[in-house]
Structures are given as C-alpha cells and as structure tokens.
Amino acid sequence: MSYIEINNVWKEYSDQIVLERINNQVEEGEFITIVGASGCGKTTFLNMLLGTESQTRGSISIAGKPLRNEPDQERGIVFQRYSVFPHLTVLQNVLLSREFEQSPLLSRLFGDAKHKAATEAREMIEAVGLSAALDKYPHELSGGMQQRLAIAQALIKKPRILLLDEPFGALDPGIRADMHQLVLDLWQRYKLTIFMITHDLKEGFYLGTRLWVFDKDRIDPQAPGAFGARITYDVPVGSVNADISKTLEKSIQQTAISNPEHAE
Ligand SMILES: Nc1ncnc2c1ncn2[C@@H]1O[C@H](COP(=O)(O)OP(=O)(O)OP(=O)(O)O)[C@@H](O)[C@H]1O
C-alpha cells in the first residue's frame, strides 16, 4: 500500500462535476507538481487533501488511514495570497502557529513549553532565511519574504505533507528562483511529501519528481458541467528526466492551441 491512496475520487457541486475518477498513489517523499486549465479543479483537489473539502465519491487514505475531513497537523498549506497576520512580527506570526497547534483552545503556552516553542520558531525562521527580519511586520517585508514567512508558519507545525497552491504566482521571476531553491532545500531537509499547483509549466517540470496534468478528457459543449477533470498525464519530471519534460511540454502546448478554452 502506498503512503497516499486516491481511489475513484469524484467532486461534484450540485449538477457540476468538477473532478471525476481520480485514481492515484503517492509514495512518501514525492514532490507532485500540478498544472491544468483555470477552473479545472486543482485547488478543489488540494482542499480535499487538506481536509477542508470532502469528496462526493471515492476515498483518500494517508498512511493506511482514511483522510479525516478536517485539517490537522499532518498537512500544512501555503496559498498564493499571503496569509500572515499583519499586526504580528515575523517571530510572533510563527510562534502563534506553533502555540495554536500545541494549545488550540488557549493559543498560549507557558514556562518550558513557551521557551521551547520560541527556540523552534527561531530555528524555522532561520531555515526559511528570515533571521534578519525577526522583528519586522509583514508590511515591512517583500512579497518573497512574506511567502517565506507563510512557509515557516506551515512548517512549524511539522507537517509530513506540504500543500502549495500557486505559492509563487505573485512573485517576480528573480525572486521565484530563490524560492524554488528554498522549497527544494526544505523538501529534502524535512523529508516532506509535497503537492504544488503552478501555472508555470517550467516550474512544474523543474521542481517536481512527478507532474500531474488535470484536464477534461470528455467535453459536452451543451453541458459544461457534465464531465469533470481527471489526471490526464502523470509523468516523472525534474532534471533527471529532461527529455520527457520537453516532449510533454510540446504536447501540452499543442493541446492548448487546439483547445483555446483550456489554455492557461
Ligand atoms: N464551494 C464551491 N461551490 C461551488 N462551486 C465551486 C466551489 N469551489 C469551487 N467551485 C467550482 O469548482 C471548479 C473548480 O474550481 P478550482 O478553484 O478548484 O479550480 P482551479 O483549477 O484551482 O482554478 P484556478 O487555476 O483558476 O485557481 C470551478 O468551476 C469553481 O467555480
């Protein structure tokens, strides 16, 4: 049995089928990048993995246990829009995530627990390269720094699975390159299993060990909601497999040209 098992998962909103017949297995430590046309259900899929959305059919299991339909510390998420608290410093933002995870009702830690949490928060801030900005507020940080902070907030809870929903979509290309390196470092260092949505195919090829393409393989022009997207490509990528990456890149570009509605 694989670490993550996705069996015949469907997601429907009233009469709209968003995703259908999603079947896949993911091993621990894989880095899955996800691309697909806007609105095809990528975020919905990530939310199902997070536990904030539930599938309408099928099942998802993690480490042999059915996925619970509520977020827990096994899974952390980073969104495209910065999700940090504006009135708290970098250290306070990360500390709050730690405290909330350990003491969800009080959101306060005391004594040794508080001291340990502060040490861990500083270490995590260092791991994401923000040590020099410990006491800065989010409005004093660049976009890239804010995303570093959001990643630190997610990782301080020690998740085994990190979900990234277009985390670098709003960043300049130069900053994105730094962030790519950071994510690759953190992935190795914390032995994470990562799912990352991106609109940037090159990013998907470069960062992942596997690239999934979500697309509809059946379309009814009279009833756009009649069919959902599936995983139409599932290929090994990354620097180890540059040839496959090139072939697939061409193929997806051709699909986009022949079917402009599905172009990014
Ligand atoms: N809570 C909801 N109720 C009804 N429909 C929803 C809901 N959430 C998402 N949808 C619909 O599900 C479809 C998939 O949305 P989703 O956000 O998952 O797509 P996406 O592939 O992530 O898009 P994008 O790349 O633009 O972010 C869309 O048609 C959207 O309108």
Report on the architecture of this protein.
The protein is α/β, with parallel strands linked by helices. The protein folds into 2 domains: 179 residues, 3-Layer(aba) Sandwich (Rossmann fold), CATH 3.40.50.300; 74 residues, no CATH class. The protein has 7 helices and 10 strands. It has a 6-stranded mixed sheet with strand order 6-7-8-3-9-10, sandwiched between helices. The longest helix has 17 residues. It is globular, with a radius of gyration of 19 Å. The two termini are 35 Å apart. Keywords: Acyltransferase, ATP-binding, Nucleotide-binding, Transferase, Transport. Pfam families: ABC_tran. This is Lauroyl acyltransferase. GO terms for molecular function: acyltransferase activity; ATP binding; ATP hydrolysis activity.
User: Low-confidence parts, pLDDT < 50 over ≥5 residues?
Assistant: 260-264
Please tell me the CATH architecture of the largest domain by its name: 3-Layer(aba) Sandwich
Give the spatial strand order of the biggest sheet. 6-7-8-3-9-10
Number of helices: 7
Keywords:
binds adenosine-5'-triphosphate, four-stranded antiparallel β-sheet, Rossmann fold, disordered C terminus, 264 residues, 35% helix, six-stranded mixed β-sheet
Question: Which SSEs are present, and which pair or pack?
Answer:
Blueprint: E1 4-13, E2 16-26, E3 31-36, H1 42-50, E4 57-62, E5 65-66, E6 75-78, H2 90-102, H3 111-127, H4 143-155, E7 161-165, H5 173-189, E8 193-197, H6 201-207, E9 210-215, E10 230-236, H7 242-258
Parallel strand pairs: 3-8, 3-9, 6-7, 7-8
Antiparallel strand pairs: 1-2, 1-4, 4-5, 9-10
Helix pairs in contact: 2-3, 2-4, 3-4
